[in-house]
Design brief:
It is a single chain. Helices cover 25% and strands 18% of the residues. It contains nine helices and ten strands. It starts with 5 loop residues before the first strand and ends in a 15-residue tail after the last helix. The chain binds S-adenosylmethionine. S-adenosylmethionine (SAM) binds next to helix 5 and strand 10.
């Protein structure tokens, strides 16, 4: 095969077409062939296709069928936009597609997207990494048809007590709530279930480990939902009257010196206290080229 074309595996975000990146939009606009995951990607995104582009919904296609369309188009020198939900690196079944393209010598590129995890956090107005509450986010799923690798079962992961973002598992809400409590999460741990974030019928259900499963059952939610567990999704954290119960990030504190700013002063590009900057939980950036860059 000549394979002069190019394949883009594109993260389309959670559903809202406005959460497409500019790059994703440009590639979709120009693509000759579009294969989009029509169970999780709205048709409005496929509708950006130029006139004459061939558009396929992948929901009812098998991997060999998807790859057959993809490889033929690439061999004809065409541009293929394979559009997937959220970010393709999370539960995107991209590895098997990439291996086939590697074997066939097809030029391909991944375009990242907004994962439903981050779109859900935005809708919840939650910071998933609140100082002294949780500095770790575990993205996982409950065991179902797919077995979990050793040490990644929910009970083991739950021992960390961190913020948990659980994909593909809302049908197992009762079992998950029980397992998390057995593993040490207090019964009153806040939980949010975000259903079809970014779609017109989006729903957010909030509760605790004791009542969330029944609320989800009552709402008849059985798919396309994320479960986020942990104190970081406690809506009370937003309460301005909650006082000093929550530690705040040092990054913007006036008393805190870091790489770009000295305590009690304005910006200082020459402040090289990288150790303090790191202690605030922020990655140290390369030294600015010259003073005043920030
Ligand atoms: C096959 S995975 C794809 C995840 C995707 N790659 C991402 O980064 O969001 C599908 C699961 O992601 C979650 N999901 C995807 N889109 C969602 C949305 N709009 N709202 C809530 N959850 C969503 C659900 O847990 C769903 O079962």
């Amino acid at each position: 095969m000549a394979n002069d074309g190019k394949v883009y595996i594109i993260g389309a975000g959670p559903g809202d077409p406005e959460l497409l990146t500019l790059k994703a939009k440009r590639i979709i606009d120009d693509a000759d062939v579009i294969i989009y995951a029509d169970s999780l990607v709205p048709v409005e995104i496929a509708d950006f296709a130029k006139p004459g582009a061939r558009v396929y919904g992948s929901k009812e296609m098998s991997l060999p069928e998807i790859m057959d369309v993809t490889l033929r188009a690439a061999a004809e020198g065409k541009t293929v936009a394979r559009i997937q939900s959220g970010d393709p690196s999370l539960y995107g079944a991209t590895l098997e597609q990439m291996r086939i393209m590697e074997a066939e010598g097809v030029d391909y590129e991944i375009i990242p997207g907004v994962s439903a995890a981050f779109a859900a956090a935005a809708v919840l107005k939650a910071e998933l990494t609140v100082p002294e509450v949780s500095q770790t986010v575990i993205m996982t799923r409950a065991e179902g048809r797919v077995a979990m690798p050793e040490g990644e079962d929910l009970v083991s992961l739950a021992r960390h007590g961190s913020t948990l973002v659980i994909f593909l598992s809302v049908t197992r809400m009762f079992r998950i709530a029980n397992q998390l409590q057995e593993a040490g999460y207090p019964a009153d741990t806040p939980v949010a279930v975000a259903y079809r974030v970014g779609w017109p019928d989006q729903q957010i259900i909030r509760g605790t480990l004791t009542d969330i499963a029944q609320k989800v059952r009552d709402a008849k939610i059985t798919l396309q939902a994320l479960i986020i567990v942990g104190k970081a999704v406690d809506p009370n954290l937003l309460d301005p009257n909650a006082g000093e119960q929550v530690a705040v990030s040092h990054l913007y504190s006036n008393e805190y010196t870091h790489l770009y700013r000295r305590a009690g002063q304005g910006s200082h590009a020459d402040a090289d206290r990288a150790d303090l900057y790191e202690a605030g939980g922020y990655e140290v950036q390369p030294e600015p080229a010259s003073a005043g860059d920030n």
